[in-house]
Amino acid sequence: MSLSVGLEIGTYSIKMVELLHKRRSFRLRRLAQLRIPPAKEKNASENSIAEAIRSLFSRYKIDKRCVISGIGGDSAIVRRIKVPLMKVKELRRAIRWEAEQYIPYPIDQVTLRFHILEEEPSEKEERKMSVILVGVRNEVIEAHLQLLQKVGIHPHIIDINPIALFNIFNLSNSKEKDRVALVDLGHSMTNLILLDKRGPFLIRTISIGGLQLTQAIAQQLNLDYMAAEKIKEEYGLLTLDESEKMKEKSIAAQVDEIIRKSIDDLIEEIVRSFEYYASQTGGSTIKEMVLVGGTSYLKGIDKFLSKELGLPVKRFNPFEGIAYSPKEFSSDYLNKVGSIFAVGLGLALRRREL
Predict the structure, then answer these.
(1) Crossing angle of helices 210-221 and 225-235, rounded to 10°
(2) Which of 2, 69, 133, 300 has fewest C-beta within 10 Å?
(3) DSSP classification of residue 296
(4) Burial code of 116-155, b = ≥16 C-beta within 10 A, e = fewer?
(5) Where are the beta strands (DSSP E) in 109-198?
(6) Cα–Cα distance measured from residue 323 to residue 235, given in angstroms and rounded to the nearest whole number
(7) d(Cα 211, Cα 219) in Å, to the nearest integer?
(8) 199-206 and 190-196 as β-strands: parallel, antiparallel, unpaired?
(9) CATH (one of 3.10.20.10, 3.30.1490.300, 3.40.190.10, 3.40.50.80) for 76-136
(10) 176-315: CATH number
(11) Could you list the pLDDT tens digit for every one of the 354 residues in the chain?
(12) Contact partners, residue 151, CB within 8 Å, separation at least 6
């Protein structure tokens, strides 16, 4: 038996998922989350993050030798590209030339990885295949490694958070995996993954998250950051019935209005992504949205997005179908916190490839 630890480093908290592996099976062993001390409403400093990681590993006595860590989607370039059908060895040689068309940095300053999806149907003579291309600047990887090494961690694997999220969703019992928008609503940003039956079609990062909602509430209601965060969590978005019963100037109504206006830019970016998908796929439409991340727990966010985008929206529990001990975890608890740990679980599963 062996262990793997998926480590997601956010700007709001550090999340850890520990799995116990035995041959081809695995079981959930532990979950943990630790808040990063807020730094005057701005993203946490490197020292605050390092201290939070150190505290998390010390408090739960986590093995530092089996860590798979993730780099945020904003630091990576992920594209699905079509290349001539070729063997893996040939693609390894050709990928740098192919990548130059999509990577906006000198190619010798970027670490490249690829994953072959499948052959593309084509009526032309030249056969092609779909490939997920991932590029991360070397300096980003070095900074990530330095942060972890500062607390004595030397990761087995460094993955990309949106790819880890796709992997756990693809492994899940979810019936619908074609034309799905997988949305990670985080603290300072949102990762959007558009999926079709071949895998990720589009992965992009939108610089809007729970932090921006809290800042808008704080500014417009003249509150400090912690007070604004508290009433955001308490009131969230009102349902239609609640809105009709609420007085226009009540605190709940004001918070609802501020959040709706703040989310408008996120809605606009999601719609643009949907339109791009349709333009590239002969008019195909996204059928369902699946939410994960801390901000997916904002009251009413699922109903609001469903109404604005005109499609079903649900929160994803990645622990459905994952083995665990009922003595250590209850199904209610995992259902309640699952969306927070989706990326961490996806990272921990990379141990199966070591």
Answers:
(1) 110
(2) 2
(3) G
(4) ebeeeeeeeeeebbbbbbbbbbeebbeebeebbeebebeb
(5) 110-120, 128-137, 157-160, 180-185, 190-196
(6) 35
(7) 12
(8) antiparallel
(9) 3.30.1490.300
(10) 3.30.420.40
(11) 789 999 999 989 999 999 999 877 899 999 999 999 865 544 458 889 999 999 999 999 999 999 999 999 889 999 999 899 999 999 999 999 999 999 999 999 999 999 988 766 565 667 889 999 999 999 999 999 999 999 999 999 999 999 999 999 998 877 788 999 999 999 999 999 999 988 999 999 999 999 999 999 999 999 999 999 999 999 999 876 666 556 667 899 999 999 999 999 999 999 999 999 999 999 999 999 999 999 999 999 999 999 999 999 999 999 998 999 999 999 999 999 999 999 999 999 986 543
(12) 50, 53, 54, 57
Only one residue has tokens 């079609």, namely 201
Asked if 51 and 109 count as a contact pair (C-beta separation under 8 A), the reply is: no
Every domain of the chain and the residues it spans: 76-136, 176-315
